[in-house]
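Annotators were shown the component list below and the corresponding predicted structure, then asked to write short factual statements about the assembly.
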Amino acid sequence: MLKVKDLTVRRGERCVLENISLTLSKGRTVAVIGESGAGKSTLVGAILGLLPVQNGHVSWNGGDLRSVFPSLVMQEPRAAFNPAFSLGRSVMEPVKARGLMLSDGRIDRLCNGLELDPALLKRRPYEVSIGQAQRLGILRALIAAAPLVLFDEHLSALDAVTQKLTAKLIATLQREEGFAALVVTHDLGYAAAHADDIVILKKGRIEETAPAGQFFRAPQTEYGRALCDAAFALGALERVA
Amino acid sequence: MIVLVEVLLRSIVVLTLTALVTFTLLWHAPGDPAMAIALARYDAVVPPDVLEQIRAQTGLDAGYWPAFWHWIKPLLTGDFGNSSVSGRPIWPDLRDAFGLTLPLALAGLAIGLLISVPLAIYASRQPGSWIDRGAVAVASIGAAMPAYWLGLLLILLFSVRLGWLPAMGAQGPTHLILPALTLGLGVAASLTRILRSGLLEAREAPFLPALARRGVPANRIGRDHVAPHAAIPVVTVLGLELAFLLEGAVIVEVIFARPGLGTFLIDAIFARDFPKVQAVVIVTALLFVTVNLLIDLVYRVIDPRTRLSGA
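Structure shown to annotators:
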C-alpha cells in the first residue's frame, strides 16, 4: 500500500504542494484531477523522490517505496526517452538492469494491446509519432510488472479509439497483476470509468477527496462541482444521478 | 556515399585554398625573396647575377601564376620538392620534424585529458560548490594564459629556481616534461570547461531522474546516458584542440629550443624557403582535414541525430 503523509514541496517562497496525504491500496486506482499548475506532476515527482521535499514522507507497505521500483509514464512522451537509444533498448533497460525474466510473449501481448508494431522498437524517439512514443512509455511502465504505476496524463496524445484500447489493456493487466495506479488526468470521463478514488488538487492543496462514485454523484466542493459541470457540458461525462 | 563525396570535395577545396593563400602571403611578404634565399644559402650578400640565377632556379622570375604552378605541379604527385636553400629533398627532413613534434602534441593531449576529465566530472557533480567554482576559475585563467608565458613561468620555477627539469633541448624523456605540461595545461583549461558544461547539460536530461527509480544503477546511468551525451561537444572541439596543439607545439618548441616542426617552420620562414613553408602548411592542412573527417564519422556514431539530418 502506498502511503503519502503530509507531503510539502516549496520552490523558494512558493508552496507548490502543501500537506498532501493519501493512501492507495494494491489493485486500486486513484485519479488526481486539477487545473494546470495545481501541482499534479509535482506530486508524482515528489512521491517518486525525484525532487526535493520539504516535509512529509512516502512509504510502500511501511518500507521504502524505491525498493519496489515503481513505474512511471512521463507527461512528455518523447522527452521520456534517451534520443540516442533505440526505443527497444530504453524499454528493456530496466528489465535488463534488474535481471528480470519476462514471461513468454509479454512484449507481444503488450504491443498488441497498445496497438504498437513491434518494429517501432528499433526506431529512436524522434522517429515515431508522439502518440506512439506515449504508448511506448506505457509499454515501458507496464513491462516490469511493478506493484505501483504512476501515469502522468498518459493518454493525452492518443485518439479516442486508441485511448479506449489502451485504457482497456491497463485495466485488464491491473486485474491480473494487481498493481496500484495513480493517474494524473484532465479527463473526467476516464476518471469516472476507471478510478476507485478521486483526489481534487487546487493550488497545491487537496480540495476534495472521495470515492469516485460519490464524487461524480455529489461533489462536495464548489471547485469539484465546477469541474463536473464543465465535463457534463463538454459531454465527457454522463450524469450518474 | 553522397556524404563521403561531399566531404572529399570539401577537403580538396580547403587544401587548394590553403595552398593558394600561403603562396600569396609569401609572395607579397616584404623584402626580396631571392635575396633572403641567397643570404640563407651563402650567408653573404651576393652579386646581382647570382640573384638572377636564384630567381630562375626557383621559378620566381616567371611571375605569380607560373611560380605557383612551378611549386604545386610536383606536389600533385606527392613530391614536396627540394629546399630552395639547401637543395636537399624536403620530405625526409619534414618527416623527422613531425616525428619530434608528434610525441609532444600527444603528451600534451594526454596531460590535458588526464587533468580535465576527472576535474570536470568532479566539478559537475556539485555545481556551484567551491570545487566547481575553483575548477571554472582555473580553467578560465588557463585558457587566458598564452603558452609562451606559461612556458617561461614553468622554466623559471622548475629549471631556474628548483633545477629539477631541463629547460631546453630534446635529448631524453625528461626534456619532454615541461613542454608537454605547457601544452597540456592549455588543453586541460578548454576541455574542462567544455566537458563540465556538457556533463551539466547531460544531467539535466528529462529522462534521467526516473531511470534510477526504474532500477537502473547509477554507474550504468553515468556510463550509458550521461557520458555519451557529454562526449558530443568534446569530440566536436577535438578538431579545434588539434589546431591548438600544433600551433602551441610550434610556439612551445621555440621557447624550449626543441627541434621539431616549430623550429623547422620558423627557420624556413626566415630563409624564405618557399617550398619548405608550403610543405609544412600543406601537410598540416591535410592532417586537419583527415582529423575532422574522422571526427565527423565518430560524431555520427555517438549522436544518431546527425546521421539522420546529414544523410
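Statements collected:
1. The first helix of chain A runs from residue 40 to 48.
2. The beta strands of chain A are 2-11, 14-24, 29-33, 55-60, 71-73, 148-152, 180-184, 197-202, 205-211.
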